[in-house]
Amino acid sequence: MEPQIVKKPAMTLVGVQLHGKLEGMDLISLWNGFGPRMSEIKDANPAVCYGAMDHYSETTGEFDYLAACEAKSAVAAPAVPDGMVSWNIPAQTYAVFPCTLPQVGEAWMTAYQQWLPQSGYKHAAGPEFELYDEKFNPQDPASTLYLCVPIVSAN
Predict the structure, then answer these.
(1) pTM of the model
(2) Alpha carbons 37 and 132: distance in angstroms, whole number
(3) Which of 36, 88, 97, 145 has the fewest Cβ atoms within 10 angstroms?
(4) Domain count, the chain
């Protein structure tokens, strides 16, 4: 699986966050709870969503997962809806891997265990994310989403 290398501008994501290990996270409930609240995010496009991950602990295997939309205007802490948080994502270069929901676990493993070690890149600081664009349909197992891994040159 060869990714597309893409530069993305800085953005602010606003959404609901979970912390824990992947095995214990109820991501379906998180997304089902977030969906009806998307309209609360000022200037957001609810047709494009992000599943962002950051703050991974090698020791515990825990990390933060954010089900979110991009806020187009600058969002100050008081403007974030109750029960939501905002993450400022820096402008970065990403390796973008297309996949489907049934393939997502395998695609993450392929990205990190096969492609990245052989790519000439290394993981950059900052969140990685799943991008669910306006064409994505969660009811269709063949619908495409995109895994975005922040990268920098390994040299």
Answers:
(1) 0.90
(2) 17
(3) 36
(4) 1
Q: Tell me the two tokens of residue 129.
A: 């994310």
Q: With CA atoms as reference, report the closest residue to 8 among 64, 56, 52, 42.
A: 52
For the ranges 47-51, 69-73, 113-117, 139-143, the lowest mean pLDDT is seen at 69-73
Name which of 78, 64, 70 is nearest 17 in CA terms. Answer: 64
Kindly state the tokens that stand for 22: 């992947």
Residue 75 confidence (pLDDT):
54
- The two tokens of residue 105 are 């676990």
Residue length, the chain?
A: 155
Work out the mean pLDDT of the chain and round it to a whole number: 91
Domain CATH code at residue 40: 3.20.80.10
> For residue 151, which of 99, 101, 97 has the smallest C-alpha distance?
97
